[in-house]
Automatic annotation (TrEMBL):
The family this protein is said to belong to: Belongs to the glucose-6-phosphate dehydrogenase family.
Positions annotated to bind substrate: 176, 214, 233, 324
Residues bound to NADP(+): 52, 93-94, 146
Glucose-6-phosphate dehydrogenase NAD-binding domain boundaries: 17-183
Region ranges (Disordered): 448-483
Stated name of the protein: Glucose-6-phosphate 1-dehydrogenase
Domain Glucose-6-phosphate dehydrogenase C-terminal: 187-456
Keyword Oxidoreductase in record: yes
Enzyme Commission designation: 1.1.1.49
Organism of provenance: Streptomyces salyersiae
NCBIfam families (alphabetical): zwf
Biased composition (Basic and acidic residues): 461-475
Amino acid sequence: MSDLLNPPDLERSDALVLFGISGDLAKKMLLPALYRLTESGRLTVPVIGVAATDWDDDTLRGHAREAVVAAGMDIDDAVFGRFAAGLSIVTGDFTDDATFARLRDAVAGFAFVTHYLAIPPSLFTRVAASLAEAGLNRDARLVVEKPFGHDLDSARKLQDELSTHFDDDHLLRVDHFLGNRAVESLMVSRFANTLLAPIWHRSYVDNVQITLAEDFDVADRGSFYDAVGCLRDVVQNHMLQVLAFLAMEPPSATNARAQGLEKWRVLHATRTMDPADTVRGQYDGYRDVEGVEADSTTETYFATRMFVDNWRWAGVPFHLRSGKALAVSATEVVVELRKPPLELFGGEDTRTPPNLIRFRVDGDTGIRADLMLSKPERNTGPMTVPIGVDFAQVLGRQELPYENILHGAVEGDPECFAFFPAVLECWRIVGPVLDPAEPPLAYAPGTWGPEAAEELPGPRGWHELGRRLFDDQGGSRRAAPTS
């Protein structure tokens, strides 16, 4: 094991090999991100695609152009020309040794290569073994997409199998939320601002709500989604990574391994999810989607209450919810601060609402605090006023998460990748609620999920989210009971 406080520098790649370059992930995310990296001057190595298709290099380049246009980007012909010039393809079945022989010829002469597997997880070990058999695991690293396993035991097994061919310094695990600078800003906001750092614990924080909501359904991904579900798709990885950034202690060194150790510590202190504090839902019409089983019990909605049993967070509930076909699309953290000990400013029929700190980490990213100010009229109680920062206005265009993932894969920067001990803790946490016998509760598309989840955070319910961080409704909440 390398020195934990002084990990080795990872090698920079001379070429990126992208398995699954003809697939959906590459079309929607990877190819547009590679174009952006070319535009910014951060992609200077060739990209060699591998796919079971009859494409040639020109076909791949045409497909890449279509993918960039479909992502809503205005193409600069000079930039795309540079990008396309570095694109080539090796075709063949991933189970055929001849495919890897052709790949070996394609990468001959490169000193170090990154192999990126944007393919179904069922093929990870087969491709890794074939790379090793062809000698392509030497002077190379392997990058695998999520999910890393489907439970705790399978994650351990997958690690053991991949480690046979690539040691841990040459194996990176993708969680694209870690490439999202707005997610990273959770840690920066906490530790770089003495305005927030002193209050970030149980003495001042009443509860935390983390929402990853999507207003669209599973569309044409029925077969994939029905085998995975909401919990495995986004909660076990994305949402628990956000929780770790929110709750971790400051790392003792400025490297990815020190940060990973702090994430592991806080996740290790997190209780396993309790079925009694969990609500699963399935939107009406889900079973009619092509590829979905007629009697499917896969959840499209998941909500739970969690606790971190350490000195900083003991007794503070963390509420998580996520789902498809909900009222809005928003990925947002709401930290509710404790109220003052006496009610001095509320009116006869109102109570002073709590201070809220909001982090929008997808879409219109930013930070917002809801503060109380006095209304001009006497005896009317205080009013909520939002203050904050819209990242796009202040910082300009935000990089796509996969820009940072792919750049890190090529450059050998592990910061944007999941730390394996933390991955195991995430699987431990969700273990008791992975495959329950009870069917999910039905909910209507366009709502906030099953009614049973409404009061999971308590009688006042969930904080409402607007379509944008600074929507008027973003600061409101269901009225508190008056009795």
